[in-house]
Design goal:
32% strand, 11 strands, alpha+beta, elongated, 25% helix, disordered C terminus
Amino acid sequence: MNSINGHRCLALVIACLSMALPFAQAAIVPRQALAVAQVSRSSGSLSVQHSLNIQLGYFDGSLFNSAPLFEQFFLTGSDVGKTFTLATVDDPDFALFVQKLTNGSNDGLGITDNLGTITAQQEPEFFTLLAADNNGLDLQGFQIGSITMQVNALTINTPGSDPNGDGEWTDSFFEGTFTVYAVPEPSTCMLLAVAGLTCWPSIYRRNQKGSKRCQKGKKVSPIVERHSTSSRYDTLFTNSRD
């Protein structure tokens, strides 16, 4: 009986995991936003550009020199409303960016673009929202899982205002939201399912040992067969021991 119950338990755990896996995303607690930055800027450039390359990164004085993010995306008007997400596996600079974001120092942070415009502030001023219990400077002590860039508005006009009258000019406007998210946590249901599957081997072994002990101490009842040609009963013992 214990063995049967053990198999039923395993079947139940496997069934739960089978149903849960297709909805793995739904089994994750919604991401917690640790920091939010609202960015709005206009720029002009003495060049012709048909896309905008927005980069989020750290500044040293007037130089944009460390851990730029989102430099692989060249935005056009068709990207308005889209959200671009980066994590460790998506950008080699992500780890260094997170290191600076959590180092406890008041560093310069901002954005630049392929038109040569730089906008930078100290971290507490750059973010319009910081997680509760922050140190007043950055996100020291928090686990960073991903960073997103949402394109709220974007226009690129060339030659645009064309101040020199030679057609070599580009005007642009960008409005976006940068959000820093914590490492996502699995839901309670997923944790219980994984815990059940993890504990299954020990439960199975315990049930198997209990089943063997029961079999060793079990008395075997005789099987009585009645012959049609005789009034007597022949007792046949099976699996008997002396």
